[in-house]
């Protein structure tokens, strides 16, 4: 059994379940990375066709995007690089829980530092920096984190 979280009452999953989740993460990561790189390497690729012919509740919004070339360029750029970066993040296992908003920063920082990590690299909005730095400092000041075991040391 692999413990999803240390002593916080989270459910345990089997090694097989853990392996299946890792394989799924890698397959999805590869697919997203592939799609992003394919779009990046396709001259003149744009999401305009997809957006223009969309139907349902966001059709008017997508139509507005396609009617503004500057906004369409930004959407295309975000699409390509979002696919590439999310794909790489999934393949490398970088910040997957935090990115999925499955764990709040305080829990994520605490888990990382209590389990031996010396630093964390986190993307955040400007308005979150002060609170996240304060949280990290508070967690690092705790006795159990200061004296944490580092298996590699």
Distance between the termini: 26 Å
- Principal-axes geometry comes out as elongated
Provide the spatial order of strands within the biggest beta sheet. Answer: 1-2
> What is the string of SSEs from the N terminus onward?
EEHHHHHHHH
Report on this structure:
The structure is a single chain. The protein has 153 residues and is mainly alpha-helical. The chain has two domains: 1-94, no CATH class; 95-153, no CATH class. 64% of the residues lie in helices and 3% in strands. The chain contains eight helices and two strands, in the order ββαααααααα. It has a two-stranded antiparallel ribbon with strand order 1-2. A hairpin with an 8-residue loop joins strand 1 and strand 2.
Would you summarize the structure shown here?
The chain has helices at residues 15-41, 48-52, 59-66, 69-92, 96-99, 105-114, 126-141, 143-146; strands spanning 2-3, 12-13. With 153 residues, it is mainly α.
Task: Give short descriptive properties of this protein.
153 residues; mainly alpha; 2 domains; two-stranded antiparallel ribbon; 8 helices; 2 strands; disordered N terminus
List the helices and strands and how they pair.
Layout: E1 2-3, E2 12-13, H1 15-41, H2 48-52, H3 59-66, H4 69-92, H5 96-99, H6 105-114, H7 126-141, H8 143-146
């Amino acid at each position: 059994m692999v413990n999803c979280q240390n002593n916080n009452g989270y459910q345990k999953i089997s090694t097989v379940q853990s392996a299946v989740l890792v394989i799924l993460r890698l397959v999805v990561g590869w697919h997203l990375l592939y799609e992003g790189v394919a779009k990046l390497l396709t001259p003149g690729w744009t999401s305009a066709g997809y957006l223009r012919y969309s139907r349902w509740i966001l059709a008017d919004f997508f139509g507005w995007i396609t009617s503004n070339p500057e906004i369409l360029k930004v959407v295309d750029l975000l699409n390509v690089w979002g696919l590439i970066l999310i794909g790489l993040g999934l393949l490398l296992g970088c910040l997957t829980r935090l990115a999925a908003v499955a764990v709040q920063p305080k829990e994520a920082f605490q888990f990382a530092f209590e389990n031996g990590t010396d630093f964390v690299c986190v993307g955040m909005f400007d308005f979150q920096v002060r609170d996240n730095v304060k949280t990290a400092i508070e967690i690092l000041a705790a006795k159990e984190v200061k004296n944490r075991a580092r298996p590699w040391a």
